[in-house]
Amino acid sequence: NVPDVISGFPYVTEIIMPTLTDNIPSIANCPKLEKVTFDPSTIIILKEKSFDGWPPIKQISFGEEFEYMWSFCISPNAQIDSLDFSRCKHMYLTDHAFQRSKIKSISLPDHISKLPEYVFFDCPNLASILAIGVIKIYFNTFRNCYSLEHLKFAEEFHTDNIDKYFNDEDYDTSRCGIEIGKDDKYSYIWCLT
User: Fold this and answer.
1) Rounded to the nearest 5°, which phi and psi values hold at 78?
2) Could you point out which of 97, 165, 167, 189 has its C-alpha 20 to 30 Å from the C-alpha of 36?
3) Measuring CA to CA, how many Å separate 178 from each of 11, 32, 133, 186?
4) Predicted confidence band of residue 40 (pLDDT cuts 50, 70, 90)
5) How far apart are CA 88 and CA 63, in angstroms?
């Protein structure tokens, strides 16, 4: 049984949690903590703000039994470089799932065919998405994802499968790409070719 918060262990350098099914604890007040050892294949659900206060993690590869995540499932304070869901057989992707997280790359399973609204909204470090089953992108999926460099979607993906942010009456701008940000003067667009 894993507590919701692990806190107040000033001399602990490593925490070992062999099984984490649906409760990823927050960690606080453990200044010498360098490593958390866990088996990511045992995780079935990611609740809100998972991995809060954990030391840096290069990659988390989820197992076949992973099912779904809540909105805002990765804490904005989590230091995770890469999430790999590619082996998940029945995973469901929800609106706002990774919003405000600091992840750099993500791989989704082939059966995920849609990227829901705001799923990666305000993910400033997100550079790479491998989602070869995706054929539809919903509104504001990539808003404020200024680091995007690599997107790989299904071969059947077409620009008409993007919920339009632009004025539908202006055919040229409505089909040119995905708006990832905007300021007083400019819109920042991921162009599709």
Assistant:
1) -70, 140
2) 97
3) 48, 43, 18, 14
4) very high
5) 6
- Please name the residue that has the structure tokens 């993007």: 162
Give yes or no for a contact between 72 and 100, defined as CB atoms under 8 angstroms apart: yes
- Nearest-angstrom CA–CA distance, 18 and 146: 36
List of residues 6+ apart from 3 with CB closer than 8 A: 25
Tell me whether strands 150-152 and 177-182 are parallel, antiparallel or unpaired: unpaired
Q: Which of these, 43, 61, 160, 155, lies nearest to 110 by C-alpha position?
A: 155
Question: 135-160 burial by CB neighbour count: b if 16+ within 10 A, else e?
Answer: ebbeebbbbbbeebeebebbeebeee
Would you say 64 and 88 are in contact if contact means Cβ atoms under 8 Å apart?
A: yes
140-181 pLDDT, tens digit each: 888 888 888 888 888 887 666 665 544 445 444 444 456 555
